[in-house]
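Forum: Protein Structure Q&A
Topic: Joint prediction for protein chains with partners

I've read a bunch of threads here and the consensus seems to be that you should model interacting components together rather than docking separate models afterwards. I'd like to see that in practice. Below is the full input, 1515 residues plus whatever partners are listed. Could one of the regulars post the assembled result?
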Amino acid sequence: MESTDLYSVKQRFFLGAYKSLVEQSLPDESSEDYVPILFYKARAHIALGDTETVTSLIPEDTENLALKAVAVFANYISSPTGDAALEELRDLCVEIEGDDVDASEREKGWVRVVAGTAFARASEVEEALETLGAESTTENAEAVAVAVQIYLSIHRPDLARKEFERAKQWAEDDLLLQLIESSIGLVIGKDSYLDAHSFYTEQIANPSVSSPHLLTARGVTRLLRGEVQEAKSDLEEAVAQQGGQDDAETLAARVVAAGLGTKRGDAEELWSQLASAHPEHPLVTAVNGKAVEFDDLAIRFKVPPLAIPTC
Amino acid sequence: MSVMLTKFESKSNRVKGLAFHPTQPLLAASLHNGSVQLWNYRMGVLVDRFEEHEGPVRAVAIHPSRPLLVTGGDDYKIKVWDLRPQNRKCLFTLHGHLDYVRTVQFHHEMPWIISCSDDQTIRIWNSTSRNCIAILTGHSHYVMSALFHPKDDLVVSASMDQTVRVWDVSGLRKNTPNSAPGTFDTFDNFSTVKYVLEGHDRGVNYAIFHPTLPLIISAADDRQIKLWRMSDLKAWEVDACRGHFNNVSSAVFHPKHELIVSCGEDKTVRVWDLAKRSAVQTFRREHDRFWVLASHPELNLFAAGHDNGLIVFKLERERPAFALHGDTVYYVRDKYVRSYDINTGSDIGLLSVRKFGSPYVPPRTLSYNPAERAVLLTISSDNGLYELTNLPKDISGELKDSSLDGKRGPGQSAIFVARNRFAVLNKNTQLIEVCDLTGATVKSIKPPVQTNEIFFGGTASLILSSTSSVVLYDIQQQKTISELNTPPVKYIVWNQDGSQVALLSKHTITIANKTFTQSTLIHETIRIKSGAWDDAGVFVYSTLNHVKYCLPQGDHGVICTLDNPVYLTRIKGKIVHCLDRSARPRTITIDPTEYRFKLALIRNNYNEVLYLIRTSNLLGQSIIAYLQQKGFPEIALHFVEDKNTRFDLAIECGNLDVALETAKAIDRPECWNRLAQQALKQGNHKIAEKAYQQIKNFDRLSFLYLATGSTDKLQKMQKIAEARGDPMSRFHNALYAGDIQGRIAVLREVGLHPLAYLTAKTNGLEDIALEILESAGLTEGDIDDIPDFGRASLKIPPIVTPTTNLVWPTVPGGESFFDRALADGNLETGVEPHNGDAAITSVALDDWAKDEEQDLTADEDGWDLDVGADGKGNEGEVAEEVDEEEAEELGAGAAPGIDETEIWTRNSPFAGDHVSAGSFETAMQLLNRQFGVVNFTILKPFFVSTFRSSHTYLSPLASLPPLQLHIRRDPTESSLSRVLPVSVRALRQIRAELSEGLRAVSGAKLPEAQAIFRSVLQSLLFVAVSSDEEAKEWRETVTTAREYLLGVSIELERRRVAQEEPENIKRGLELAAYFTHCQLQPPHLRIAMRSAIQVFTKAGNSGSAAKFARKLLDLDPDPKIASMARQRIAASDRNPRDAVEISYDEFTEFEICAASYTPIYKGSPSVRCPYTDAAFLTEFKGTLDPLTRLTEIGAISSGLPAPR
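Posted by a regular:
Agreed with the consensus. Here's the joint model:
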């Protein structure tokens, strides 16, 4: 049984309460929890896009492979090309396979998760899945979660489902498993997205964690359920919980919600906000790409002159 | 039957007789020491005592409908008592029995009392005439009991002679009772023994009829209870219940269930199954022999008397198991799970749970899982069981029994903790097992405290109830989150949003937040039964006899009283929804004003407070005291009529105006004094002045005038003082006012000449000084020895600021929200809060829109348009045969699957859906093929925004690229062969936009209208229709928009012509005429007509003007316009000529070319817009449609695809 602190840290990490994790103080270095909490805290920093703190957070000379992996991962996120970082991660993955490596099973798992995430970001799907040990017997719930999301992103909910079912055999009934199930539900849409909706509703009511991410997630779920009005209120509350600051995810969802709602005017305003503040968000890139495509396509049609009466 | 719930217990001398009051919670107990007690068993108090019998009282009964009590004692007397609270006393005594009286009873309708005695007789008395009207003889030993049949004219008696006898007393009814006492012989004629029931081996102690069936039970010293059945002709023994091991004192039928309850000298109360005669339950007492048993006539309530007192008990819990989800109550009645919809009142059975646990025991709790539509029940029989069953989807025919597929297991308490998990408590092993829906244990928890019951504690949490505390426990982490000390918690109620929970114990309620970090405790002396949250956040709860409220900070009070306990389920505004003791839903209407008012006060929601003050008649000392106590005297002021209180409050809150007003009304010195004091404190010296004037406090007045620099008032004060003949006061005032003459005058008058002289002298008033000297008969020489004081150097202090007419700054606080609001005098106007002004201004518009919409629907039938031609489409063209099967093999590595957007384009032939899917290329092809669209540039915003609104992104895991999620049209559809994108542009919305355009037309904002109609036509291209009706509606919308667009364009052209080519009157007239030909709705057509009339009249074409006027009259315009039209017709009758010749033939049908705005008469060739079907002269073929600017005129198109 892991300690309460670590449990809470993991819970908040999985539920997207990165901000509260970042503020979390580290336990004493000698503590058993020091490495795990540092690991998740660093990842929370990365999730928020703050890679610089990670570099300072993790001692450069750390011997711990998991922490090393996180540091490299931070480098990868911060550098635009990041091929060198990817190589380093590959090395680390090889290293943990070795016999004489000084790392616990848990730490090895973490290295895989971090590396898999990086590979997925680099669109190296196959390598990512391989690293994560998808379709194998590795008992690592986090790796399963990442693998499932990768499967979902390549439109293979069937494989995601299989991976999840397999995980259910050995995994403890825990939060992460429910999260995986809800993610699959979001893509498949079984029972009107009931899995995801119930999951996020339950977690929002959870007294021990509060994360605007959960509200955003439920907002998105409600959008999918066709409950636009309710979705809006969730998203607005998510914004309110962040002190009026939109994160990219919430803002993107708000754009969509506004576009489906009754007041379409808001959509354009929110869109321009999103497009200027988060030009790299997939919604922005997708829409901008489509706009360019439109222009190319539109000129293929010959437009005749306007009918003007001659007399 | 595992429960016998003791509701009340009292200690006393041996109880020999018991009787329940039929309607009130009263119980009469007659004691061995001669006293008769009247208990209120609900409140647990001794209401009264009747102590006139000598020796033990064995017999007692209460009249079923009148406030009468009858008792019979070992003093041979039968006494009848008035039970009314104000005059509880013995009304009369019946003498006649010659030995101990054993039982008495009132007849249910006749004024009869039956009694039996050790003198071996049964007597029937007329309580009106107070005579004995019958003596039933025949028993050969003590008669131990004699009771009337509940309906028939029968009596059953039990005797020590080992027999039970049934008597026919119908003769009593026919004959007027013999009034002469002592003529015993005649009695026997009326009453005969019908049956003698022999079978008991010892004396029989008690015999009673069944309330409805022809059954009798008897209890005897042979330790048996015998059941007898009777017909019209005979009676026979059916069976006996064996089990008591000493004399059975009494046995009664359960009023509702097929049960017998008995008690005996073996110190037990036993329950028997009437049908099987088997023992169901036994309740033992250590030391006390039971002597008597009584059952309540209506309720599930019994009383038993023993050596040292009595107990009142229930045989089963009445609290129905229920759970609330949204506005639906799921509950159990008669072992059926039912649902009750609070809004519609529909109450339906869903599931039978008859085979769950003991048939005599109702389920104890119910937990509902909305996600799975499952219920989890627990029952206390068999040492506790739970059962998990899914509610059937459809409930036609016979209800499913839960034993079919329910999952059962042992456990005392079971609840859902998540959508697919439930927790079961095993009390004996103190283990909580978390199970999945198949009943398999996934986790075991050892609770940190001795747990008696578990409740839902919010996500992933449990609330554990122990004997002295409740614990909020995290299931996942297996640790205590927090703990509250409370008496044992029996029920909990979460509020709607799960932020607060009420923990109900027997006598306390703890209101806590969801982390248990804040809580308030309320104590009740009466048993708390249930509670529910009001939508506003007030906890409403019921005790045995009240409905009460509790505010978040702990204030509580009574809302209304209850006759019988109820179990609250939901509070909605003024309606309390509850279940009664027989688990029937009912409602109680309450007045929530008081607690709403208090809540609003606490939350500083003054608008609401004001609204409540204005609209309700809140009154009473309690509210005033409450307001004063909570620091709102200014609000309290508005409730008070009594002037003294009003004055006190006004002073307290510093409302001087009110204080002054009330002080005038009261007019007592102490009031004025207090007012003056308060006024000075607040710097309002004018009111202080008034107060001083009222109480004639001249000194203070003068000083006040001095302080405020009011010299003229000081002068007046001098005069007043003069009038009062008070020289001291005069002097004072003169001194204050700096009036030297005045001072001298006063001094002289009172004979202080030396002082007067010196005053005059030192102030340089030599004349007056001399005058004084003279009047004193002295000369200057006489007073040489007086030293020279010189000139008085003290001056009257100057007035720096004339504050006389000012009021000094008042202390803050007098001016509050309420003062302003209430002073504004809008106390009566009463506008409900939350009604923003915007709402009012928009009302007019909404009405307008409503009219418009009605017009629309009314008119559309009139648009005679053929849909068929365009409705059929070429669905096959795009939608190739969709592969139903996902062809790929599973587990084919990590090969990417098919994107849902691809499936969308496969599944739909509509351009809008292709746009949503991001397949712009096919979308454009579709639009081109279906509607001949060629000019796409202006559609770009539609493409982009539609695509943008069809996908959303979420990243469930850190740092991974977010998942693209696709918003589907029907969220319940998950089969890939049928999924379609969300309809970003719905027909309904576009029609709303259209009516906005119509409004713009009415408002003569033509360019705006034109833009709107264009945009409507553009939007309509992206609509996907799902039914033929929708397709028809779509076509109609297109046509309407086109006609309006055409009409508006013509009118704009006419205005342009009038502006730019004023000489071209002919064209102007033609355009005006064409405008009237567009198919508009009547209001707009009227506008077109009027405009035409105007233009034509102006041009001198009065003949044509009259034609339009006639058409206008057909359109039923309002009277003013109609009269104008008639004038035009009259004018043309005088001069029916047209000054300008125009090309307009109203008699031949024509369409208007949408490019040149010229008529295309019927039969002439034309080309059409492939989308809107607008007509054009053939010369425009191949050009861009000027109306929509989208399509190529005359292009070949397939039209809207068939709906799907």
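Chain B touches chain A through 92 residues (CB under 8 Å).
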